Sequence to fold (276 residues):
Amino acid sequence: ITRVARGRSHSLSKEKVLTDIRWAAAGGAREAVLTGVNLGAWGKDLLPVSRLSDLIQAILEQTDIQRLRLSSLEPWDLDGSFFHLWQNQRMCRHLHLPLQSGSNTVLKLMGRKTNRNEFAALVARLRQVVPEMAISTDIIIGFPGEDDAQFEETLSFVRFIGFSSGHVFAYSPRPGTSAANLPDHIAHAVKKSRSHQLRSEFEELSRQYRQSFLGTESNVLWESAEQMSDGCWQLVGLSDNYLRVKTRHPDNRWNEIDRVRLHKLSGSSISGEIIG
Fold:
Protein backbone atom coordinates (compact mmCIF):
# COMPACT_ATOMS: atom_id res chain seq x y z
CA ILE A 1 0.00 0.00 0.00
CA THR A 2 2.98 2.34 0.51
CA ARG A 3 3.61 2.37 -3.25
CA VAL A 4 0.06 3.62 -3.76
CA ALA A 5 0.22 6.17 -0.96
CA ARG A 6 3.55 7.81 -1.76
CA GLY A 7 2.98 8.37 -5.49
CA ARG A 8 5.80 9.11 -7.89
CA SER A 9 9.32 9.67 -6.57
CA HIS A 10 10.95 13.09 -6.87
CA SER A 11 14.67 13.66 -6.36
CA LEU A 12 16.01 16.73 -4.60
CA SER A 13 18.66 18.34 -6.77
CA LYS A 14 22.31 17.74 -5.98
CA GLU A 15 22.73 21.46 -5.31
CA LYS A 16 19.87 21.44 -2.78
CA VAL A 17 21.33 18.45 -0.94
CA LEU A 18 24.81 19.96 -0.86
CA THR A 19 23.43 23.29 0.42
CA ASP A 20 21.46 21.57 3.19
CA ILE A 21 24.49 19.59 4.34
CA ARG A 22 26.76 22.66 4.28
CA TRP A 23 24.25 24.58 6.40
CA ALA A 24 23.94 21.66 8.82
CA ALA A 25 27.72 21.38 9.16
CA ALA A 26 28.03 25.14 9.68
CA GLY A 27 25.47 24.82 12.46
CA GLY A 28 27.52 22.15 14.23
CA ALA A 29 26.16 18.88 12.79
CA ARG A 30 28.79 16.14 12.71
CA GLU A 31 26.83 13.57 10.73
CA ALA A 32 24.43 13.76 7.79
CA VAL A 33 21.99 11.00 6.87
CA LEU A 34 20.67 10.58 3.34
CA THR A 35 17.12 9.28 3.49
CA GLY A 36 14.11 8.84 1.24
CA VAL A 37 11.31 6.41 0.52
CA ASN A 38 13.30 5.17 -2.47
CA LEU A 39 16.80 6.44 -1.78
CA GLY A 40 18.57 4.16 -4.25
CA ALA A 41 16.54 5.62 -7.14
CA TRP A 42 17.86 9.14 -6.52
CA GLY A 43 18.71 10.97 -9.73
CA LYS A 44 16.79 8.77 -12.16
CA ASP A 45 14.16 11.51 -12.66
CA LEU A 46 16.71 14.33 -13.04
CA LEU A 47 18.23 15.74 -16.21
CA PRO A 48 20.87 14.71 -16.84
CA VAL A 49 20.13 11.35 -15.19
CA SER A 50 22.34 10.80 -12.15
CA ARG A 51 23.11 8.01 -9.67
CA LEU A 52 23.14 7.97 -5.89
CA SER A 53 26.86 7.23 -5.98
CA ASP A 54 27.37 10.50 -7.90
CA LEU A 55 25.59 12.42 -5.15
CA ILE A 56 27.58 10.72 -2.40
CA GLN A 57 30.86 11.43 -4.18
CA ALA A 58 29.89 15.10 -4.50
CA ILE A 59 29.07 15.30 -0.77
CA LEU A 60 32.42 13.79 0.16
CA GLU A 61 34.30 16.13 -2.17
CA GLN A 62 32.36 19.36 -1.71
CA THR A 63 31.35 19.40 1.97
CA ASP A 64 33.27 18.96 5.20
CA ILE A 65 30.60 16.95 7.06
CA GLN A 66 32.50 14.51 9.29
CA ARG A 67 30.28 11.46 8.81
CA LEU A 68 27.83 10.43 6.10
CA ARG A 69 25.25 7.73 6.73
CA LEU A 70 22.77 6.12 4.33
CA SER A 71 19.29 5.01 5.29
CA SER A 72 17.32 2.13 3.77
CA LEU A 73 18.33 0.98 0.27
CA GLU A 74 16.66 -1.65 -1.88
CA PRO A 75 19.13 -4.44 -2.77
CA TRP A 76 18.43 -4.18 -6.51
CA ASP A 77 19.56 -0.52 -6.52
CA LEU A 78 23.13 -1.53 -5.62
CA ASP A 79 25.97 -3.19 -7.48
CA GLY A 80 29.54 -4.05 -6.64
CA SER A 81 30.90 -0.72 -7.92
CA PHE A 82 28.81 1.14 -5.30
CA PHE A 83 30.89 -0.22 -2.45
CA HIS A 84 34.12 1.58 -3.43
CA LEU A 85 32.62 4.64 -1.73
CA TRP A 86 33.56 3.13 1.63
CA GLN A 87 37.24 3.66 0.84
CA ASN A 88 36.49 7.09 2.30
CA GLN A 89 36.45 6.71 6.10
CA ARG A 90 33.77 9.40 6.46
CA MET A 91 31.25 6.85 5.14
CA CYS A 92 29.45 5.15 8.03
CA ARG A 93 29.77 1.37 7.91
CA HIS A 94 26.07 0.62 8.09
CA LEU A 95 23.54 -0.37 5.43
CA HIS A 96 19.87 -1.21 5.88
CA LEU A 97 18.85 -3.64 3.14
CA PRO A 98 15.19 -4.74 3.37
CA LEU A 99 14.90 -8.46 2.62
CA GLN A 100 11.21 -9.00 3.60
CA SER A 101 11.42 -12.81 3.34
CA GLY A 102 14.03 -15.54 3.18
CA SER A 103 11.80 -17.73 1.00
CA ASN A 104 12.07 -17.38 -2.77
CA THR A 105 8.44 -18.47 -3.09
CA VAL A 106 7.23 -15.71 -0.77
CA LEU A 107 9.52 -13.13 -2.35
CA LYS A 108 7.97 -13.90 -5.72
CA LEU A 109 4.46 -13.57 -4.28
CA MET A 110 5.45 -10.21 -2.79
CA GLY A 111 6.71 -8.98 -6.15
CA ARG A 112 10.20 -8.36 -4.76
CA LYS A 113 12.88 -7.87 -7.41
CA THR A 114 15.46 -10.10 -5.72
CA ASN A 115 15.93 -13.66 -4.45
CA ARG A 116 18.00 -15.45 -1.83
CA ASN A 117 21.00 -16.08 -4.07
CA GLU A 118 21.15 -12.51 -5.36
CA PHE A 119 20.83 -11.06 -1.88
CA ALA A 120 23.51 -13.37 -0.45
CA ALA A 121 25.87 -12.56 -3.34
CA LEU A 122 25.38 -8.82 -2.77
CA VAL A 123 26.18 -9.17 0.93
CA ALA A 124 29.25 -11.29 0.15
CA ARG A 125 30.60 -8.62 -2.23
CA LEU A 126 29.90 -5.94 0.34
CA ARG A 127 31.74 -7.77 3.10
CA GLN A 128 34.74 -8.31 0.84
CA VAL A 129 35.11 -4.53 0.71
CA VAL A 130 33.91 -3.63 4.23
CA PRO A 131 34.16 -6.74 6.44
CA GLU A 132 32.79 -5.04 9.58
CA MET A 133 29.78 -3.45 7.87
CA ALA A 134 26.61 -3.51 9.98
CA ILE A 135 23.84 -4.90 7.77
CA SER A 136 20.30 -4.56 9.11
CA THR A 137 17.05 -5.55 7.43
CA ASP A 138 13.25 -5.73 7.50
CA ILE A 139 11.20 -8.94 7.44
CA ILE A 140 7.45 -9.30 6.89
CA ILE A 141 6.07 -12.51 8.37
CA GLY A 142 2.67 -14.06 7.77
CA PHE A 143 2.35 -13.04 4.11
CA PRO A 144 -0.61 -14.90 2.52
CA GLY A 145 0.42 -18.44 1.63
CA GLU A 146 3.55 -18.48 3.82
CA ASP A 147 3.62 -21.98 5.32
CA ASP A 148 5.78 -23.31 8.17
CA ALA A 149 8.50 -24.54 5.80
CA GLN A 150 8.80 -21.14 4.13
CA PHE A 151 9.00 -19.40 7.49
CA GLU A 152 11.79 -21.80 8.47
CA GLU A 153 13.56 -20.81 5.25
CA THR A 154 13.43 -17.21 6.44
CA LEU A 155 14.81 -18.12 9.86
CA SER A 156 17.68 -20.11 8.40
CA PHE A 157 18.51 -17.43 5.82
CA VAL A 158 18.56 -14.71 8.50
CA ARG A 159 21.08 -16.81 10.44
CA PHE A 160 23.11 -17.47 7.28
CA ILE A 161 23.43 -13.78 6.43
CA GLY A 162 24.21 -12.85 10.03
CA PHE A 163 22.42 -9.51 10.15
CA SER A 164 23.52 -7.03 12.80
CA SER A 165 19.86 -6.26 13.59
CA GLY A 166 16.41 -6.43 12.05
CA HIS A 167 12.84 -5.18 12.22
CA VAL A 168 9.96 -7.66 12.15
CA PHE A 169 6.53 -6.75 10.81
CA ALA A 170 3.42 -8.92 10.67
CA TYR A 171 1.56 -8.73 7.36
CA SER A 172 -1.84 -7.07 7.46
CA PRO A 173 -4.15 -6.76 4.44
CA ARG A 174 -4.84 -3.38 2.88
CA PRO A 175 -7.79 -2.76 0.52
CA GLY A 176 -6.71 -2.01 -3.03
CA THR A 177 -3.61 -4.19 -2.96
CA SER A 178 -3.21 -7.43 -4.89
CA ALA A 179 -1.95 -9.23 -1.77
CA ALA A 180 -5.27 -8.64 -0.01
CA ASN A 181 -6.94 -10.86 -2.64
CA LEU A 182 -4.49 -13.75 -2.27
CA PRO A 183 -5.73 -17.00 -0.71
CA ASP A 184 -4.47 -18.68 2.47
CA HIS A 185 -4.20 -15.72 4.84
CA ILE A 186 -2.31 -16.55 8.04
CA ALA A 187 -4.03 -16.66 11.43
CA HIS A 188 -3.15 -13.93 13.93
CA ALA A 189 -1.87 -16.42 16.50
CA VAL A 190 0.53 -17.93 13.95
CA LYS A 191 1.84 -14.51 12.96
CA LYS A 192 2.34 -13.60 16.61
CA SER A 193 4.32 -16.80 17.26
CA ARG A 194 6.49 -16.33 14.18
CA SER A 195 7.15 -12.69 15.09
CA HIS A 196 8.36 -13.76 18.53
CA GLN A 197 10.69 -16.40 17.06
CA LEU A 198 12.20 -14.05 14.51
CA ARG A 199 12.65 -11.19 16.98
CA SER A 200 14.47 -13.56 19.33
CA GLU A 201 16.74 -14.56 16.43
CA PHE A 202 17.54 -10.93 15.63
CA GLU A 203 18.25 -10.18 19.29
CA GLU A 204 20.81 -12.99 19.39
CA LEU A 205 22.43 -11.94 16.10
CA SER A 206 22.63 -8.36 17.37
CA ARG A 207 24.27 -9.54 20.59
CA GLN A 208 26.82 -11.57 18.62
CA TYR A 209 27.61 -8.63 16.37
CA ARG A 210 28.12 -6.27 19.33
CA GLN A 211 30.18 -8.85 21.19
CA SER A 212 32.57 -9.18 18.25
CA PHE A 213 33.75 -5.61 18.87
CA LEU A 214 34.59 -5.97 22.55
CA GLY A 215 38.21 -5.03 23.16
CA THR A 216 38.39 -2.90 20.01
CA GLU A 217 38.30 0.86 19.52
CA SER A 218 35.66 2.90 17.68
CA ASN A 219 34.81 6.53 16.98
CA VAL A 220 31.56 7.48 18.72
CA LEU A 221 29.34 10.52 18.15
CA TRP A 222 27.70 11.39 21.49
CA GLU A 223 24.00 12.04 20.90
CA SER A 224 22.87 12.53 24.51
CA ALA A 225 24.50 13.71 27.74
CA GLU A 226 23.02 13.66 31.23
CA GLN A 227 24.80 15.02 34.28
CA MET A 228 24.72 12.60 37.21
CA SER A 229 24.57 13.34 40.94
CA ASP A 230 28.36 12.97 41.26
CA GLY A 231 28.95 15.61 38.60
CA CYS A 232 30.03 13.15 35.89
CA TRP A 233 28.24 12.97 32.56
CA GLN A 234 26.45 9.88 31.26
CA LEU A 235 27.10 9.88 27.51
CA VAL A 236 25.27 7.78 24.90
CA GLY A 237 26.08 7.75 21.21
CA LEU A 238 26.57 5.77 18.03
CA SER A 239 29.64 4.44 16.31
CA ASP A 240 29.76 4.70 12.54
CA ASN A 241 28.73 1.03 12.28
CA TYR A 242 25.65 1.61 14.44
CA LEU A 243 26.88 0.32 17.78
CA ARG A 244 25.14 2.10 20.64
CA VAL A 245 27.85 3.02 23.14
CA LYS A 246 27.66 4.59 26.58
CA THR A 247 30.25 5.88 29.02
CA ARG A 248 30.75 8.19 31.99
CA HIS A 249 33.08 11.16 31.64
CA PRO A 250 33.97 14.27 33.67
CA ASP A 251 33.13 16.54 30.72
CA ASN A 252 29.99 17.07 28.67
CA ARG A 253 31.01 15.67 25.27
CA TRP A 254 27.60 16.00 23.61
CA ASN A 255 27.87 16.29 19.80
CA GLU A 256 31.58 15.47 19.87
CA ILE A 257 33.24 12.45 18.27
CA ASP A 258 35.64 10.57 20.55
CA ARG A 259 37.80 7.49 20.25
CA VAL A 260 36.36 4.88 22.60
CA ARG A 261 37.65 1.51 23.78
CA LEU A 262 34.72 -0.90 23.96
CA HIS A 263 34.70 -2.97 27.15
CA LYS A 264 31.50 -4.94 27.79
CA LEU A 265 27.93 -5.52 26.73
CA SER A 266 25.33 -3.57 28.67
CA GLY A 267 21.83 -4.51 27.55
CA SER A 268 21.47 -3.38 23.95
CA SER A 269 24.48 -1.07 24.33
CA ILE A 270 28.23 -1.40 24.85
CA SER A 271 30.01 0.25 27.76
CA GLY A 272 33.26 1.93 26.81
CA GLU A 273 35.96 4.37 27.85
CA ILE A 274 37.06 7.52 26.04
CA ILE A 275 40.77 7.16 25.23
CA GLY A 276 41.49 10.20 23.11
